[in-house]
Specification:
This protein is an alpha/beta fold. Helix content is 45%, strand content 21%. The protein is built from five helices and five strands. It has a five-stranded parallel sheet, sandwiched between helices. The longest helix has 24 residues. The chain is globular and about 40 Å long. It starts with 5 loop residues before the first strand and ends with a helix.
Length: 139
């Protein structure tokens, strides 16, 4: 696939403008300067057709389509399934976390969270993704 998409650090799906500003500020503070915010994952495919994120941060509760639905759709799409997705949500039950991981999330951050936790989760997701790609090339 010829990838003409614009490379970005983080694609953030978050319905709250206030939350998105706070998360983006934490990302900038940690050196992630190319952040794109989408208020809803309803049109996730058109967004991923335009941008090539290193990682996706996905809220769970959003209008139109929840984060679990969008996560499953992304992971079922051959073109985008390898993009690491970290769920970021105020839904903190064990069932929510397990469901996210079963749907394909590589991590789950509970709101509210600290900037260090966010950075560590992203760094781990990217390191694991790189390791997987290296292993795939060796096979």
């Amino acid at each position: 696939m010829d990838d003409l998409r614009k490379p970005i650090d983080v694609l953030l799906f978050e319905d709250s403008p206030l939350e998105s500003k706070a998360i983006t500020a934490k990302l900038y503070k940690r050196g992630y300067s190319k952040v794109v915010w989408a208020q809803s994952p309803v049109k996730w495919q058109s967004i991923l057709d335009k941008y090539a994120p290193a990682v996706i941060l996905m809220d769970v509760v959003m209008p139109g389509k929840n984060g679990f639905q969008a996560l499953r759709e992304i992971k079922n799409n051959v073109a985008y399934r390898d993009v690491p997705v970290i769920m970021v949500s105020g839904k903190t039950t064990e069932a929510d976390i397990i469901w996210a991981l079963r749907c394909g999330a590589v991590g789950y951050i509970k709101k509210p969270f600290r900037s260090k936790e966010l950075a560590a989760s992203i760094k781990t997701a990217l390191a694991n993704h790189l390791e997987d790609r290296i292993l795939d090339l060796q096979l």
